[in-house]
Amino acid sequence: MKVLIVYAHPNESSFNHAMLEQISFGLQEEGHDVQVKDLYAENFDPVLRASDLEQLQKGNTPESIVVEQESLRWAEGLVFIYPLWWFGRPAILKGWFDKVLTNGFAFQYGDTGLRGMLQHRRALALITAGGTEEFFQQNDAEHLVHRPMTDGTLAFCGIEDVHHRIYYDIAGMGDKGRQNVLEEVAGLGRHFNE
Ligand code: FAD
Questions:
Q1: Domain carrying residue 85
Q2: Which of 13, 77, 81, 145 is the most exposed place for a label (fewest CB within 10 A)?
Q3: Probe residue for ligand 1, chosen from 92, 94, 170 as the CB with the greatest number of ligand atoms within 8 Å
Q4: Whole-model pTM?
C-alpha cells in the first residue's frame, strides 16, 4: 500500500520521533511505499486565513492547499503520529486538517446528506499522552483523546477502516515500557497488509 505518515511533533529527539522511525521501518519491511509529511520540519503554516476562505468559497483552491491534497490523493493508507496536547491534536495538525480537508475534496453535502469523499483504505492514529490510562478512565475522557480524530475527522470524511492506539503515561512508564511501545509500533506495519 502507499502510506502517507503525517507527523506532528517539533522535537527530533522526542519519543514521537522514535515512533515515526519505527513505523516507517515497519511499513517498509512489509513492502509498503512510505511518504512522511513532517509538519514542523516543513514549517507548515496551519492558519486558515480569510484569503484562503475567500478563494475556497469562489471554488478556487489555493496552490498551497492543492499541494497538500496531492499528498493525500497519492496515499491509500494514512498514519498520524502526535502527542496529546490539551486533549487534542497539536495546532499544526489541527490546522492541516482545517486547510486540506476542504468541502468538495474531503466531504460533500447533497440531497442524501453528508458524503465522505476520502477513498483511503485504512487509517491509523498513534497518540501519546502524559496522563495515565487510569486518569482518563476515571474522568470518562478516553473518547476525547481520539474521537475528534477518528470519528470527527477521518470517518466523517468517508474512511471506514479507522483505528487508533493511545500510549498513556509515556514519561512515567519507564524504559522497558517505552521499548515495548516502540516494538509494537514497528509491528504496526503489518496493519497495512491486505
Ligand atoms: P518525550 O517528552 O520526548 O519523551 C517521553 C519520554 O520518553 C522521556 O522520558 C524520554 O527520555 C523518553 N524517550 C525519548 N526518546 C526515546 C526513545 N527513542 N526510546 C525510549 N525512550 C525515549 N498530556 C495529557 O495526557 N493530556 C493533555 O491534555 C496534555 N496536554 C499537553 C499540552 C502541551 C502543550 C504539552 C507540551 C504536553 C501535554 N501533555 C498532555 C503531555 C504530552 O501528551 C506528552 O508530553 C507527550 O505525549 C509525550 O510525548 P513526547 O514525544 O513529547 O515525549
A1: 2-192
A2: 13
A3: 170
A4: 0.98
Distance CA 95, CA 105 (A): 16
pLDDT (tens digit, 9 = 90+) per residue, 145-161? 999 999 999 999 999 99
**Which residue(s) pair with 81 in the sheet?**
7, 126
What is the band of 194 on the pLDDT scale with cuts at 50, 70, 90? confident
The answer to whether the CB of 174 is under 6 A from ligand 1 is no
* Closest residue to atom 34 of ligand 1, CA basis: 85
Q: 159-194 in b/e burial notation, b at 16+ Cβ within 10 A?
A: beebebbbbbbbeeeeeeebeebbebbbebbebbee
Total of domains in the chain: 1
Q: Which pLDDT tens digit goes with each residue over 94-116?
A: 999 999 999 999 999 999 999 99
Using most ligand atoms within 8 A of CB, pick from 7, 11, 14, 133 the residue to mutate for ligand 1: 14
Instruction: Read off the CATH number of the domain in which 31 is found.
Output: 3.40.50.360
Pocket test for ligand 1, best of 15, 128, 135 (most atoms within 8 A of CB): 15
Find out whether 15 and 177 touch, Cβ atoms under 8 Å: no
